[in-house]
Write a structure and sequence with these properties.
CATH superfamily: TolB, C-terminal domain
CATH architecture: 6 Propeller
Strand content: 35-45%
Helix content: under 10%
Structural class: mainly beta
Distance between the termini: 52 Å
């Protein structure tokens, strides 16, 4: 029996789409609502501590932080043809480390944190937020994110809304980490504003992921209701534009260890985070349980 031409075209398109999906996310089988270690033996390794991670919007580039015997460095792998490249270190230094990579909304900048001195050669200082610009030959030399972001205290982790507002954490008040947001106006970050009490408390709040449309926020905190050394919490923005009281994401995500470094893929399907020194991922279908 002959198959109609239009059906053949549809089957071919479906095959192309399926093959493309199978090639993304390092060809890993998608997780359910039960968290799984991401790419064991490739990315998550027994002898390393893997930190923050980020995919580009097409899920064909992957950046992640690694503590390699006390040395913080950023590694990278990408899809070339039908194969992912061997992960390689793209940012490392003998004096200071690099960690917490995150791409800007247009993906032309790679942001990260580092104790790098402003002159690039002096002894390491407090953690600042830096970025490099994408060039035809790779990433540029580090550029400091500026005084509206960085202070004499530590600044950690980075994520962005679609319009370029940066969310990050800082210990600039009483040496206690809180979460801040800085709007991007005409290419410049504005003075950062501390988020309200629904998010920030007298406890530690850091490692923040903001949904691109600002509909929800996930962050690491160390609070009395926590299950371990650091837990992940979530808050949603209500119809009036205010954040709901942040809640612990519970035993489905958090353990007696340390959960941190949240990230949600651009397609909104998968939630990544670090747990007990490995990177995990889980379906974002789990988020409905927290609303």
């Amino acid at each position: 029996m002959k198959i109609p031409y239009i059906l053949l075209v549809l089957l071919l398109l479906l095959s192309i789409n399926t093959n493309s999906q199978n090639n993304t996310y390092l060809k890993q089988s998608p997780p359910s609502i039960m968290p799984e270690v991401f790419a064991p033996g490739i990315i998550s390794k027994a002898n390393l501590y893997e930190f923050g991670s980020v995919f580009n919007k097409d899920a064909t580039e992957f950046y992640y932080g690694v503590n390699n015997d006390g040395k913080e460095e950023i590694r990278f792998t990408k899809l070339v043809g039908n194969q992912w490249t061997e992960p390689k270190t793209i940012m490392s230094h003998k004096k200071h480390g690099y960690n917490d990579p995150f791409l800007s909304p247009d993906e032309n900048r790679l942001y990260y944190i580092s104790q790098r001195a402003l002159d690039g050669v002096s002894e390491p200082k407090d953690y600042d937020i830096w970025y490099s610009e994408r060039t035809p030959n790779g990433w540029s030399e580090p550029i400091n994110a500026g005084k509206n972001i960085n202070t004499n205290a530590d600044e950690y982790y980075i994520s962005f809304t679609t319009n370029g507002t940066m969310y990050f954490s800082s210990s600039k008040i009483d040496n206690n980490f809180d979460i801040y947001a800085s709007k991007m106006v005409d290419g410049n970050f504005q003075k950062a504003k501390r988020l309200p009490a629904a998010i920030n408390t007298q406890s530690y709040e850091a490692d923040v992921f903001i949904a691109p449309d600002e509909s929800y926020i996930i962050f690491c905190a160390n609070r009395k209701d926590g299950l371990g050394r650091g837990d992940l919490y979530i808050s949603f923005k209500n119809k009036d534009g205010f954040w709901t009281q942040s809640v612990n994401m519970g035993k489905a995500i958090n353990t007696k260890g340390h959960e941190l470094c949240p990230f949600v893929t651009k397609d909104g399907k998968y939630f990544f985070y670090t747990s007990n020194q490995d990177i995990y991922w889980v379906s974002t279908a789990i988020f409905k349980d927290y609303k």
